[in-house]
Structure formats: C-alpha cells, structure tokens
Write a structure and sequence with these properties.
Elements (H helix, E strand, L loop, with lengths): L16 H24 L5 E2 L5 E2 L1 H17 L5 E3 H5 L9 E9 L1 H6 L5 E8 L2 E9 L4 E5 L3 E5 L13 E2 L9 E6 L5 H8 L3 E7 L3 H7 L5 E4 L3 E2 H13 L3 E4 L15 E2 L2 E4 L12
Parallel strand pairs: 3-4, 10-11
Antiparallel strand pairs: 1-2, 4-5, 5-6, 6-7, 7-8, 8-9, 12-16, 13-15, 14-16
Length: about 280
C-alpha cells in the first residue's frame, strides 16, 4: 500500500482493494475527534424507532464520513445506519459503501472504550475492503488485499506504512480461543461454543472481535443474535484480508446486499484459520 494523496475523484469501484482500504481508513479517522468529543461529554443515548440506542456521536460521525465520501470519491451508493434508521431508502449497486458510525453504542454509553467506527466497501456481495477505528483505544485496523493494524491517535492522519503491523490469522490450534459479544449473548451462541474444544474465551464489544482474530489472538467468533450488515462488513473485510473466513450459519460465505431482508444478517461464525470451519466438532 502507498499513502499518497487521494485524488478528488477517487474511484472506489475501480481502485485496488488496498488503495480503497486506505481511503476508508482515512474516512474513519476523520470521524474520531467528533466521537471522542461526545464521549468526553458523556453524551446520553436516546432510543430510535427500533428501540436501539443512538447518540450525538453516531450522528456527527456519520455526517463526517458521508461528507468525505461525497466530496472525495466518485458517486457510489452509501448505506449508513443512522440515515437508514431515519427512513432513507436502501439503495445499493454492484458496489456500495456500508457505514456504521458508532458500532457498540452500548459500550460507548457504558464508557468502556470498546466502540468502533466502521466503513466498508461491498462488491459482488462481499466486503472487499474495510476499516475499523477504535478512537478511545487509539487503534486502527484496515484491510483490502492485505490487513494491517497501527496506533492511531485521535485527530492524527494515517501514519506512514512503516508503522503498520501486518496481520495474519494463526494456524489452527488444538484448543481454541473464542470471542463473544460483551453485550449481546444468546443461547444459540452458547450451544455452539459448548461443542468446541475451548482453551479460553474473551468478551469484546463492537467489531473488535473480528480484529482480535485477525491479529492471531483468537480463533472463532460465533454470532446468532441479530446484526445488521453495517455492523459486520468492515470487521469482516479485515478478517478476510488477514486470511480468515466468515460463514453464514446455513453455510457459505456471509452475503451482503440483502435488501429484501433490510440488510439484516442471519447467524454467522467468523473463523481464523479456514481449516477450522471444515472440522467436525463432536464432543
């Protein structure tokens, strides 16, 4: 990847995956200061029509990312959580951008730092590039053809490539480390985990679970409770770029662009080493 200046008409549909990942990483970083300003203010949450929480941080971050995409990139459909919640029709194409301006609003309100800003490009039903920024942790993960992580202080630009750490999932171990949601457990997930030879479990909020596996510090993240495509796309892109795989509960890759389902995901399992997904887990 190169960190050169982006053109005013950056073409997300035609540039390389690595170049797109950099563009999206900068978009996520741009929203960091607004999110942290609201975090320091202890922004209160209110309920949306579907009952899920939203804060001023969600809204400000989404406006910043959408503005950046509109100004700096050629026109492409943008599907963002808060605009969709406000009633904007879902319009996608062969390529489109998914934006979750504050993934882990419950973690934001709980003030544990485990929330992220997620931006991803979907093409042909798959997330092919994405960026996950955790501003409270000052960490950034991004991936296209390859995946990287780096320190990312709030308000700073993307650091030079020398500061990026390449990511790769770890080889399939005999004893697995499972990642689970800090705020959204469910019986189906627990039943799935009971079948696995676990050596440990880690709970984390937002898309951080995908990133932990991409860094080689975990092996499996099952999720059968409801999620939306913007919740998962960026972390999914990073994990796939690091050599992992995200499979739908019914089999096959997790598909994006499910307009008929309102972009709601079914159950899925994220694996580090793809060989783990083909094993029989009978205990």
């Amino acid at each position: 990847m190169k960190t050169g200046q982006m053109a005013q008409t950056f073409d997300l549909a035609r540039e390389s995956r690595d170049a797109v990942a950099l563009f999206l990483a900068r978009a996520a970083l741009a929203a960091g200061p607004a999110v942290m300003e609201e975090y320091r203010r202890c922004a209160a949450a209110r309920a949306k029509r579907d009952g899920s929480p939203v804060t001023a941080a969600d809204e400000r971050a989404e406006a910043i990312i959408r503005d950046r995409l509109t100004r700096l990139a050629k026109r492409i459909p943008i599907v963002a959580e808060e605009a969709t919640a406000a009633g904007q029709a879902i319009e996608i194409g062969e390529c489109f951008v998914l934006v979750d301006p504050l993934d882990g609003t419950k973690e934001f309100v709980a003030r544990n730092g485990e929330f992220t800003i997620n931006v991803a490009l979907v093409a042909g039903g798959a997330p092919i590039a994405g960026a996950v920024y955790a501003p409270a942790l000052e960490r950034l993960w991004f991936g296209g053809e390859a995946a990287y992580a780096c320190a990312a202080p709030v308000g700073a630009d993307l650091p030079d490539a020398a500061a990026w750490r390449p990511l790769r999932v770890r080889s399939a171990p005999e004893s697995l480390i499972a990642l689970t949601s800090r705020s959204h457990g469910d019986p189906a997930t627990e039943a799935f985990l009971e079948r696995l030879p676990l050596g440990g479990r880690r709970s984390a909020g937002s898309s951080l679970k995908f990133c932990v596996i991409a860094e080689g510090e975990g092996d499996v993240y099952p999720r059968f409770a409801p999620t939306m495509e913007w919740d998962t796309a960026a972390g999914d892109a990073v994990l796939r770029a690091a050599g992992g795989v995200v499979l739908a509960a019914e089999g096959g890759p997790l598909i994006y662009g499910k307009v008929g389902a309102g972009l709601r995901n079914g159950g899925f399992v994220a694996w580090g080493d793809p060989r783990l997904a083909t094993r029989r887990w009978d205990r």
